[in-house]
Amino acid sequence: MEPPKRLIRTVGSGEPSSRLHHPHWTIRDEDLSKDLMGSRTITMKNHETLQRLEEILQLNFIFTWNVILELTKSDVHPEFPATLWEPIHALAELVRSQPEHLLGADLWSPLQYTARTSNKGNEESFFCNIIKPLLHAAFGEYDGKGDRLNCNPALDKELLLPDYSVTIDWYDRTKGEHYLIVCETKPPGASQLELDADYIKPPNMMKLSLDRQIKQGYSESMVIGILVQGWKVLVFYMCLEHEAIYEIKPMGHFDLIVDRMQLCKLINICPILLEAKNIMEASMKHLQQRPSSETSYKAQFTRPSYDIQPMYIYSTAEVVDGEDGDTEVPN
After folding, report:
1. Spatial CA neighbour of 224 closest among 283, 170, 175
2. How many CB atoms lie within 10 A of CB 277?
3. CA separation for the pair 126, 145 (Å, rounded)
4. Looking at CB atoms within 10 Å, which of 111, 168, 202, 265 has the fewest?
5. Could you tell me the residue ranges of all domains in the chain?
6. Which residues 6+ apart lie within 8 Å of 42 measured at CB?
7. Got the DSSP string for 2-50?
8. Residues paired with 229 in a beta bridge
9. Are the CB atoms for 306 and 10 separated by under 8 Å?
């Protein structure tokens, strides 16, 4: 997937300091926490000219895996099992669990999507006819109504409601819901501006959701993100293993299936979605229980979020829309 040409700037009050108070994350002899916080400090000082996705996310202490690998000067990527029986077993399990979705005509036919001409119609039909059946095949047995995240009301339209989600009520329902999976979708005909916006939206929603899980006392919390950009799909998760370092780790990527001749793609798709489902179910099992009297030790690792105020930045760093926010987003 090509990197964005234009990006959404993330600004606001948030947390201006990168100072750490707990043990640092070190790899071999390198202090990775110090490197990441130093990078973020530079980003804060130069936020008026942000042009890279990684820099924008750093304002919320969100770091992509590529940034971490770059700082560690490592070319080593996690190795995933490559034996044949695992993807075949995953395919069989998914087909057995939801055959009516996997074999239904709507899943394989993009014609209903391409037949419409309006942008709104295109996006809605693309999601309903292609994306939603696939996600329902993997996660449809779970609740996904998704209350809005607790954020600045002025930002609701842009930020607070994912295209698809899996949620669970807090033990105290008056406090709303936990987001376990968030998905953002843009159809193949989307503009570059729309695609760029979706690079920023899911990580910020995931951070807010992760903070809420930790607040309930769940130390092993993870939130799944799914980003659909045209016919390509990225799946990743966010975790908080070290102070102030919200990591985005890739789980895999695949191309969507557009007709029955491409059924073999399920061998690549199913293991990724099943891994996401396993992580989601582990979180759900814990969060369904009342929290213990002790809060999570990771509560000390969290940081406030920045206001997510859209501002488009071109290669010349010219601001063409929006103003800096000044309201802190509650965790």
Report:
1. 283
2. 21
3. 19
4. 111
5. 78-302
6. none
7. PPPSSEE---SSS-------SPPPEETTEEHHHHHHHHHHHHHHTGGG-
8. 186, 232
9. yes
Mean model confidence pLDDT for the chain: 73
Q: For position 153, what pLDDT does the model report?
A: 43
Please write the tens of the pLDDT for every residue from 171-190: 666 666 788 999 999 988 88
Q: What Å distances lie between residue 311 and 6, 31, 61, 197, 227, CA to CA?
A: 10, 33, 19, 10, 21
Query: Which amino acid would we find at residue 176?
Result: G
Return d(Cα 99, Cα 312) in angstroms, integer: 43
With both helix axes pointing from N to C terminus, report the angle between 266-287 and 132-139 in degrees, rounded to the nearest 10: 50
Q: Using the Cα atoms of residue 156, residue 159, residue 163 and residue 168 in order, give the sign of their dihedral.
A: negative
Strand order in the sheet with 62-64: 62-64, 245-255, 232-242, 223-229, 177-186, 164-169
Q: Determine if the pTM surpasses 0.70.
A: yes
**Cβ within 8 Å of residue 12, ≥6 positions away:** 306, 307, 308, 309, 324, 325, 326, 327, 328, 329
Phi, psi for 229 (deg, rounded to 5): -125, 95
Which is more confident, 11 or 178?
178
Greater confidence (246 vs 100) lies with 246
Q: What DSSP line would sit under 87-108, residue for residue?
A: HHHHHHHHHHH-HHHHSSHHHH
Q: What angle do CA 202, 204, 207 make, to 5 degrees?
A: 110
Q: Which of 123, 114, 156, 135 is nearest to 229 (CA)?
A: 123
pLDDT higher than 90, residue 143:
no
Per-residue 3-state assignment (H helix, E strand, C coil) for 122-163: HHHHHHHHHHHHHHHHHHCCCCCCCCCCCCCHHHHHHHCCCC
Mean pLDDT of 15-36: 88
Residue 290: pLDDT band with limits 50, 70, 90:
low
Q: How far apart are CA 107 and CA 217, in angstroms?
A: 39
Amino acid 301: pLDDT: 94
